[in-house]
Write a structure and sequence with these properties.
Length: about 180
């Protein structure tokens, strides 16, 4: 999954997307020298990002360049899904499913804040060390808390992630002042 994240960070402009979900919780934990809660089975091989309607074409093109197929959105809240089957010839052999939430198009609570308040985190894996755009800590907390209300499969995973992220706040008064 992290190979795909690093590839996306090289293919997409930083201002066009932000990594969200469980991998962002891990990134914040690493940045604060803390161990994130155990990942859920649902999170294995699952990535999530937010983007704008203007950048969705570039996201789709980049995902196709990385070997993902596009599943057409359906339903009242169209989610854009990208699927790549397991590849036995690469180091990353697991199948992956990515979901893209498009701010202003899909109804995904917290996505607008996640995209508006990005910070770059440098992620190193092997010889690669690109910058990955993630929502700042308070925006990640808002995003994860919002997912608690909407995720019917594992809502308490989001509650656990939210509690972990809150524990990383070093200056609660400063963060409270930033909430809008």
């Amino acid at each position: 999954l992290w190979d795909t994240i690093l590839d996306l960070s090289l293919l997409l402009q930083d201002e066009s997307w932000a990594l969200v979900g469980g991998q962002t919780v891990v990134a914040h934990g690493l940045a604060h020298h803390a161990i994130a809660p155990r990942m859920t089975r649902k999170s294995d091989g699952t990535g999530c990002l937010v983007t704008s309607a203007e950048s969705m074409h570039a996201v789709t093109r980049s995902m196709r360049d990385l070997g993902f197929s596009v599943e057409k959105p359906n339903g009242p809240d169209p989610l854009y899904r990208f699927v790549r089957d397991a590849d036995q010839t690469s180091a990353d052999t697991s199948a992956q499913v990515w979901t893209a939430h498009v701010v202003g198009v899909t109804e995904h609570l917290g996505g607008d804040q996640a995209l508006a308040r990005r910070v770059p985190y440098q992620v190193t894996k092997g010889l690669r060390s690109p910058w990955v755009p993630v929502p700042d800590l308070i925006s990640t907390i808002v995003y994860e808390a919002a997912q608690f209300n909407t995720d019917t499969a594992e809502p308490f995973a989001h509650a656990r992630d939210t509690a972990f992220l809150v524990s990383l706040i070093s200056d609660p008064d400063k963060e409270r002042a930033r909430l809008t």
